[in-house]
Amino acid sequence: MTIPDNIERIISNIHDAQKKSGISQKVTTICVSKYHTVDEAWEVYQSGLRHFAENYSEGFLEKEAALPEDIVWHFIGSLQSRKVKEVINKIDYFHALDRLKLAKEIEKRANHPIKCFVQVNVSGEATKNGISPEEVLPFIEALQGYQKIRVVGLMTMAPAEAEESYLHTLFKTLRGLRDQVQKKAYQYAPCTELSMGMSGDYVIAVEEGATFLRIGSAFFTTR
Ligand SMILES: *Cc1c(COP(=O)(O)O)cnc(C)c1O
Predict the structure, then answer these.
(1) Cα(67) to centroid of ligand 1, in Å?
(2) Taking 90 as the threshold, does the pLDDT of residue 31 lie above it?
């Protein structure tokens, strides 16, 4: 399996999942390059992908400096407040907004509105970041008035080892929350997007309406 083979397989799996679900959302596939070199990321770029993600500021800054300028950059990791100023004006999307302290730091450091996903811990695992489902509406309401935060959607991470039926439930829950926020029609929080689905579960995420997939290892495994 080469990287182009992997990409072809991922794209065809996504098409099949969309056909099966009958949901015809636009799906953007993000290549999570965090465990891989600039050269490997470059190979994915050459196969046509333009959305890339990193989860640590060091890795992000290295890749962002080395790779072409037309890349759309996503930051998917929890960001320490003191690191915000290093990365915030170089990214297009931030997927891990989960506390007001971080929102305040973004408000202070960003020089344009940042497209943010609010991270939700749907599974309730203690090891996962994100706010609880009950907190989603109050949290987003508290973001009103932040000029630099635009809530474009919700993000979640599923447990690594989970039954298919549980994954369906989890992703459906995030979609329901997204719909609730979207209905409020807040100007600063259109909340139309769903960032969910990784290498092990992206097919199920697409079936449940994902619009941004964060896929890492499935691009790079060459076994
Ligand atoms: C690493 C990571 C991914 C990608 O994981 P894979 O299983 O390699 O596809 C997606 N989202 C987040 C937040 C991550 O940290």
Answers:
(1) 20
(2) yes
Q: Which atom of ligand 1 is nearest to the CA of 76?
A: 13
CA distance 135 to 132: 5
* Ramachandran class of 145: left when φ > 0, alpha when ψ lies in -120 to 50, beta otherwise: left
**Other beta carbons within 10 Å of 167:** 22
Radius of gyration of the chain (CA): 17
Give mean pLDDT, residues 134-143: 98
For ligand 1, the distance from its centroid to the CA atom of residue 30, given in whole angstroms, is 10
* Residues within 6 Å of ligand 1 by CB: 32, 34, 55, 76, 157, 198-200, 214-218
Q: How far is the CA of 198 from the centre of ligand 1 (A)?
A: 6
Indicate which atom in ligand 1 lies nearest the CA of residue 218.
9
Tokens 């636009």 label which residue?
26
Question: d(Cα 185, Cα 149) in Å, to the nearest integer?
Answer: 15
Write down the pTM of the prediction. Answer: 0.97
What's the pLDDT score for residue 21?
85
Q: 195-208: per-residue pLDDT in tens?
A: 999 999 999 999 99
